[in-house]
Amino acid sequence: MDGHWTVHHARVDDIGRITSAAGVPVLELAAEEGTLEQAYFDLTSAETEFTAQQPQEA
């Protein structure tokens, strides 16, 4: 399998133990943390008058 999985609300060491016990080879585990900037945007996104949008393909 080529790709990645995202597991929310779980610790890296817990995921490692579970995958190891199940015999699932995992080459890399990493905790992904949000930035303070992203947290601010998440909290205030509904309150802003102007927001950026993803450009649409032509």
Quick overview of this protein structure:
The chain is an all-alpha fold and 58 residues long. Helices cover 33% and strands 0% of the residues.
List the defining traits of the structure above.
single chain, 58 residues, mainly alpha, 2 helices, elongated
Distance between the termini: 33 Å
Helix and strand content put the structural class at mainly alpha
Largest sheet: none
SSE pattern, N- to C-terminal = HH
CA-based gyration radius:
18 Å
Beta-strand portion reads under 5%
Unreliable stretches covering 5 or more consecutive residues: none
Summed over residues and divided by their number, the pLDDT gives a mean of 85
